[in-house]
Amino acid sequence: MKDNAREFIIKNLRQALSDAGRVAAKPPAPVSSSHFRLAYNEDMVLNFVNKYMLCGGNLNYAQSNADVANVLNPWIRQNNIQTIDCGTSELVQYLQNLDIATRQFATIGDESRFGVILCENLVAWDGSIVITSNCFQNKDKIVMPENTVLIAFSSLVVPDLKSILSQKAKDGAMPQQTQILYPENLDHKKTQILLIEDQN
After folding, report:
1. Is CATH 3.40.50.2000 what the domain over 3-196 is classified as, yes or no?
2. If you count Cβ atoms within 10 Å of the first and of the last residue's Cβ in the chain, which end, N or C, has fewer?
3. What is the pTM for the complete model shown?
4. Backbone angles phi, psi at 157, to 5 degrees
């Protein structure tokens, strides 16, 4: 992404997260109780953004449902997407409430070409993305469509992978499968992150 776009995102992140006393509230979209959340930490969010974008990552930032629609609509139109396949039925319900360019939804399957998935976590240490089988309707496997928008909330940024594993083990909520997506290995023309600020 161009430097001015990167600066724009980081500027918006700084403005949105500038209140040091803010604590992350429940995200405005359904997130499984198995998801591990940390209190808001501006430095972790900014560190993730820096690490991810230094590898050429395609990242968009949203502060509202209107912003989410503004990111998804160009993607839908450019790819002439008739049906959006989503990781879970809860994510379908969330997207149905947005003003986006299609009203056709399905859950992700083996033949899905265009998909929207809610990430389990983002890792500040190395800019990686954690996807687990909890992110899918079929909890037994992970299916990554060829073209994917990965939705993540700012409260899902964690310091490192160890933080996730220790908390999952403590909660007894280890998913059946886990996949780590490293930014240097992604095709950023086909994969993008939509980072949404948690709402108070």
Report:
1. no
2. C
3. 0.76
4. -80, 125
